[in-house]
Amino acid sequence: MTWLDAIGWTGSALLVWSLLQSRLLRLRALNLVGCLVLIGFNAALGVWPMVGLNVVLAIINVWYLARMVTSRHDERAYRVVEVRPDGDMLRHVLELHHDDIVRFNPGFRPESGEGRAAYLIVNGDEIVGVVLFRPDAGVARVELDYVTQRYRDFTPGEFVYRRSHLFTDRACRTVVTPPGMLAPYYDRLGFRREDESYVLDLAGR
Length: 205
Known about the structure:
Layout: H1 3-19, H2 24-45, H3 48-71, E1 79-83, H4 88-96, H5 98-104, E2 117-123, E3 126-136, E4 139-147, H6 156-163, E5 174-176, E6 192-194, E7 197-201
Parallel strand pairs: 4-5
Antiparallel strand pairs: 1-2, 2-3, 3-4, 5-7, 6-7
Helix pairs in contact: 1-2, 2-3
């Protein structure tokens, strides 16, 4: 195998790998890199129709990436919708993502729903996350903070904790996250660590 063949196989492998990604931003980024590699490979061989195809695909990927990056912190991209904590819609979402939820929230118990406030985070007509918490004398004790795999490169959590009125509308001035959550991101949002949980004071927000 020549070095040129190796470049061609690398570009093809990147395209295939990109299609296996569940995260939208990562999919587009890997697909773009694969297209750029194949542009160089096909140009070296003089296969101009394939050069043209990959140039078009690269432009499409750049357009989508630019759109995704510029909307990452756009609060207009998300809405928070309250649902019944014992309703069919919430039950369906929890069952659909059960394995992934348990992976990152090993202490979560879906059956103990009494007294919870339940919200779905949506982007357009797509459900991108779930927040469940219990109001307790001005403290929002979060039981579940979940974002689907497709949207983990974006910032629905930033919208929920820093820009929405999800907790203050329930007269909560402090948010406490569930203990033992895996791969938490709260330190980037101004939370402070307390034992196995994170705490956010909402005063002035």
